[in-house]
Design goal:
Largest sheet: 5 strands, parallel
Radius of gyration: 18 Å
Order of helices and strands: EHEHEHEHEHEEEEHHHEE
Number of helices: 8
Helix content: 40-55%
Strand order of the largest sheet: 2-1-3-4-5
CATH architecture of the largest domain: 3-Layer(aba) Sandwich
């Protein structure tokens, strides 16, 4: 069973989340600041992290930046703030998902399951359904879930891979932000514009020579995004 790392300086919140996770059958590791989270990650096999933003010693944003230097596991951000700027900050530093306090524990568990499914799929090999897509110098191998650009491997998070693969296997088709969100996150796209835009920007930074003049991932103004046929 997967192991979830909970990191929050509020011990009552950690214990409450732990109860729900264990009821779902997950193993749990606990940390109360970013430094403890990094230590726990180095000592345990962690499959997903639930990370608070505001913490002492090392906050969740800086901890996430450090984690992303070496790990691609899903990170769900927690914050007492609901402003879009805080959400975008979390996504900008590498978070996959975001839940605002106070949160519904059932919603959090649903997001845990969804992100784990996506991560597990990214790491699995499914030859019967797999394919290799080549568009110009971009190659996506869905057997190994590897992405190469001009022969160089590109490391994508599970969310980034899911978005890129969706657009690549339907190259030339324009997807609205809502269609991308509902296809990748499997939930209704309400207020999804910033979330999708941040992940698109991250993908461009990784696959494009010049992200401001993308060769592959194009915006169709007022409509959505597409992966250009080449």
């Amino acid at each position: 069973m997967e192991t979830i790392l909970i990191c929050d300086d509020d011990k009552e919140i950690v214990e409450a989340i732990e109860i729900y996770l264990k009821n779902e059958g997950y193993n749990v590791c606990k940390a109360y600041n970013g430094e403890d989270a990094l230590k726990a990650l180095s000592e345990n096999e962690i499959h997903l992290i639930i990370m608070d933003i505001m913490m002492p010693k090392l906050d969740g944003l800086h901890a996430t930046m450090k984690i992303r230097e070496n790990y691609g596991i899903p990170i769900i951000m927690l914050s007492a703030k609901s402003e879009d700027t805080d959400k975008i900050l979390g996504l900008n530093v590498g978070a996959d998902d975001y839940v605002t306090k106070p949160f519904n524990p059932l919603e959090l568990m649903a997001r845990v399951r969804s992100n784990l499914r996506r991560y597990t799929k990214l790491g699995s090999i499914q030859p019967e359904n797999s394919q290799i897509i080549t568009i110009g110098g971009l190659t996506i191998n869905d057997d190994s879930k590897e992405v190469m650009v001009d022969g160089e491997k590109v490391n994508l998070t599970p969310i980034e891979y899911s978005i890129l693969f969706l657009l690549a296997k339907n190259a030339g088709r324009v997807y609205s932000i809502g269609q991308i969100y509902e296809s990748v996150w499997n939930e209704t796209a309400i207020g999804a514009d910033n979330t999708v835009a941040v992940h698109i920007r991250h993908i461009r930074e990784k696959i494009e020579i010049n992200p401001k003049e993308p060769r592959y991932l194009k915006v169709v103004w007022g409509v959505g995004y597409k992966l250009e046929k080449q």
